[in-house]
Amino acid sequence: MNNEEKYLYTSIKDLGIDLNEDQIEKFMKYYHFLVEKNKVMNLTAITDFKEVVRKHFYDSLSLVKVLDVRRKKNVIDIGTGAGFPGIPIKIVYPEINIVLLDSLRKRVDFLNETIDLLKLDSITAMHGRSEDLAHRNEYREKFDLCVSRAVASLPVLCELTLPFVRVNGHFVAYKGGFDTANSEIENSKNALSILGSEMEDVKYFSPVDMEYQRTLLLIHKIRQISGKYPRKAGTPSKDPL
């Protein structure tokens, strides 16, 4: 392994994940393709290798701190952007079926190119809004796990994600600093009640080699949701539950 590959391996090892040679190769291809495409389209503000490893790859895989990903068969990533956290999860857990959802066509095109480049199977990049897709029978309450690093308040995120999650499935929300996360947790109690869910676990940590704070929220879906949720596009953010 070269120095970059060693850094990648050691960083992810901190999560208890041993990357094999094929996985390391895929992460390296992903990084170089991301940086190259970022020159002509806005995919990420982070391009330094070590920062991409810490703030994208490690961060995406940090959900292992709150649940056993191997027990989840069908996963959907809402607002995936450049593929985080969905693609790193797929690289490490190739047996999982994953849907990547994003509202911008150019990003979905990038995701499809990435999927082809990395030769990933059982992963689909979809262009659309969760407010629409969640009302389609083939997606509503069909996923064991929903993940999202999208920038939105927790009450909004819950309405956009939980309709995809089957009863007894989970939603993992990636959040920032501890104080901000605690405030969002407090403000989400009504939304969780309406959306048939409960906060199962909250994990606070500081990512490897970094000074900033991160919070993972594990939300458990305990009953079916009224068919009126999510409300039409734009309403969840304008009028949070």
Biggest sheet details = 7 strands, mixed
Q: Number of DSSP helices?
A: 10
**CATH first level:** Alpha Beta
Order of helices and strands: HHHEHEHEHEHEHHEEH
Share of β-strand residues: 15-25%
**What is the CATH architecture descriptor?**
3-Layer(aba) Sandwich
Portion in helices: 25-40%
Class by helix and strand content? alpha/beta
Task: State the CATH superfamily name.
Answer: Vaccinia Virus protein VP39
Please give the order of strands in the largest beta sheet. 3-2-1-4-5-7-6
CATH topology: Rossmann fold
Instruction: Classify the oligomer.
Output: single chain
Shape: globular
Radius of gyration: 17 Å
Q: How many strand elements?
A: 7
User: How much is the average pLDDT?
Assistant: 95
Overall tally of domains:
1
What does this structure look like?
By secondary structure, the protein is α/β, with parallel strands linked by helices. The mean pLDDT is 95. It is globular and about 50 Å long. It has a seven-stranded mixed β-sheet, with helices on both faces. The chain has helices at residues 3-13, 21-38, 49-61, 86-92, 105-118, 130-133, 154-161, 178-187, 189-194, 235-238, and strands spanning 74-78, 97-102, 123-127, 143-148, 165-175, 197-205, 214-221. 39% of the residues lie in helices and 21% in strands.
